[in-house]
Each structure stands twice: as C-alpha cells, then as structure tokens.
Amino acid sequence: MKKVIYILSSISILVIAVYVISANTNNNRNKSLTVMDYVSINPQSDVTEIRVKKVVFDEPGFVVVRETLNGKPGQIVNSSKLLPTGVSKDISIPVSEPVPTNGISLNASGRPFTVKLVAVLYADNGDEAFNPSQDKPIYKNGKLLAVSIDTGLPVTSESVIPNSPNSTDSSSTQADVTIIYTDAGFDPVEVTINSGDTVEWVNQSSRPMWVASNAHPMHTDLPTFDQFTTSAVGETYQYTFENKGIWTYHDHVNAAREGVVIVK
Q1: Beta pairing partners, 162
Q2: CB half-sphere exposure, 35, CA atoms < 13 A
Q3: Is-cis flag, bond preceding 98, omega within 30?
Q4: Is this prediction's pTM over 0.70?
Q5: Which of 239, 186, 249 is nearest to 218 (CA)?
Q6: Are 232 and 201 in contact (CB under 8 A)?
Q7: Rounded CA gap, 47 and 64, in Å?
Q8: Residue 110: count of CB within 10 angstroms of its CB
Q9: Which of 17, 163, 192, 249 sits a CA distance of 20 to 30 A from 1?
Q10: In angstroms, rounded to a whole number, what is the distance separating the alpha carbons of residues 116 and 101?
C-alpha cells in the first residue's frame, strides 16, 4: 500500500513539474514576442485601402486605422470587420478616398502639419461592432500593438491613443486657464492665452461633454484639439495649444455650444 501511495505521489509531483515548466515556457515565449509578431504590414503609401499581412488576437478584435498629426493622436479613418481569436492574414481595410500614409497638410491657420496613418489592434467589448469609446486598444508587455503604415514599424502609444497613460497631455498637467461647461454653455466663451499654455475644461453640466475643434463634425481646423470621447459630469479635459491663431470649438454632443481660444 505504501508503495502505491509513493508511486501516486511521484506521478503527481511529475505532473505538477511538467505543468510549471510548460507555463514558464509559454510566459517566456509571450514576453519575447514583439509588436510586429502581433501585427505585420508591408510599408504602403498613397493608398485607397490598407493591407495588413497578419494579426494575432488573444480575443476577438479589430484592426483600426488612425491618423497621427505632428506626432499626436488624430482621427479614426476606418476599421476592419471583427476578426477572430488567433491568426488572421491578408486583411483589407478600405478608405473613402486616396490617403497619403505620410504627408503634409495645412490646418485652418495655414500652418503645415505631418499626417501619418497607423494600424492599431483593438479588443472587442463583446458587441461585435467597433466602438472607439468602448473597445480598448491592446497592449502587450507595456507596448501598444500599433505599427506605422508607411514604415511597418511600431509607434508609441502617446502618438496614437488620446489620453494615453504615457501622454504628456494628461490631466495631471497644471492648467493655465480653466473653462467651466454648464447647461448654458462654455464659461467664459472666449479666452486669450500664450502659445504653450494649457486650457482645462470642467464639465459641470447635466450631460456628457466632448470638446472638439471646429468644424463639426470632422474637427478639421485643429485636428489634434479633440477629446475623441466624452467627459462625464465632474470630469475634465485638457489641451496644450502650440499653434498661434484663433481656434473656435464646440461640444460634439451639443454642437450649438461653442467657444473660442485665441493663442498669441
């Protein structure tokens, strides 16, 4: 009987040891994977569709094409259909018109800014439809799974994702001017600041607030001046103005509410 117990104990210890070794091996393998092991793209330029060679999802998700403008987050261009867990290859994401993946454009003041396109992996929240305010970008080992479409190389999260944990434009910045948003609108409606100053908007209304540059709804006058999401009552949004000019803006949720920031 003792011999049987000894054999069973030895087998149990062996099984546990094999499991631990296997788990450690898998963990080490995951830690050694790079961003481009999860999303791979051949460099492309001036495209009417984005072509993705391969993506790997641990759960169903989307490949989302986003702009970066002067190294800061821009608008979402389009997304793929819902992709399953595992490996997907040869994904095509159309764009409405030919888009340079790396080019120069002008904002409303005539100042040039660099536009780049980036492919980012997002996890689906379960509704099987892409929603930028609910679906979340995917990180592995602290790295955003995102690559530049014109180079195929990884990019930093703060240049792609609004309010990224690594962003220097986070709400921890000391604001130079504060604007209160109420049910009556922005107060004050107009402020004058210096280039490099940070403005903070505080939502004290009874509804969500989404501060964004004119013109509604595309926010093209100063495309980086955009929350890309909403602030609930009591929450805030900050933006640091670097370009001089007269920047009109609105609440994307209620576009009739407008304000002006004059940057000297």
Answers
A1: none
A2: 20
A3: no
A4: no
A5: 249
A6: no
A7: 15
A8: 7
A9: 17
A10: 5
